[in-house]
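Take a look at the protein record below with the fold in mind.
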Amino acid sequence: RDMDEKDLVEGMREYISLLQKEGRYSSAKSYQDAMNSFIRYSGTDRIPYTYINKDTLRRYEAYLLEKGCMCNTVSTYMRRIRCVYNKAIEDGDAEYIPGLFQGVFTGVESKRKKSLSLENQHKLMTVKVESEVLRETQLVVCLLFQYAGMSFVDFAHLKERNIKNGILDYNRQKTGTPMRLEILDTAELMRKELMGDKRPASGYLFPFLSGTKTGYEAYLEYNAALSRFNRNLKALKKAAGIASDVTSYTIRHSFAMALKEQNVPIE
């Protein structure tokens, strides 16, 4: 290729580096995954912007689907490529092509059922388990639900100061949105059972994070904790005789659906 011709991979690497400097490690990984996938498809890591056209994108989409990727994965990869391509247009490094990404899927596939039925929620929260690890996992499931469908990232980062006079007060890790709710008596009993006499030296309320990591190391530690929890959750759902997939997000979605089914207003 012409040595002066601008490169998609170069652009993506620059943007990934920027995200990492901003501490947005999850987003950086998403762009890294998209870049690696497109490199595998292209068979080279030298991909000029002129290579990106409607036919290339349609063939790439077909390649992903043939590999068994879900529609949402296809959409994520396409949107990551689109973002970097649009930045290249702004910088004068890529040509504007009307409707370039209109022929491929960039939406959200919502047909997959992510919530559990009330029956399966009950099974997950009450099935008798012998393993201490599974009982601890079960208690976390119950607390995530009773903390108004709290996400695992918020749960893992809770500190003692977030609970005061029966009120849980915290800010969402993802958005910074302030959250405030009353703690049910049942939730407090479960929290005490989960923790026993343990008081994490980390300063966190629960013992998922060491409190000694910063930056990218902290991101890796959290992801390891989330992976362990989801593995334990998989074993718990098997013990409960539940066939559908269950992850930490399933609990959050199930809480929202439980409210919706009881006609609680969306607002």
Summary: DSSP finds ten helices and three strands in the chain. The chain has a mean pLDDT of 94. The two ends are 55 Å apart (CA to CA).
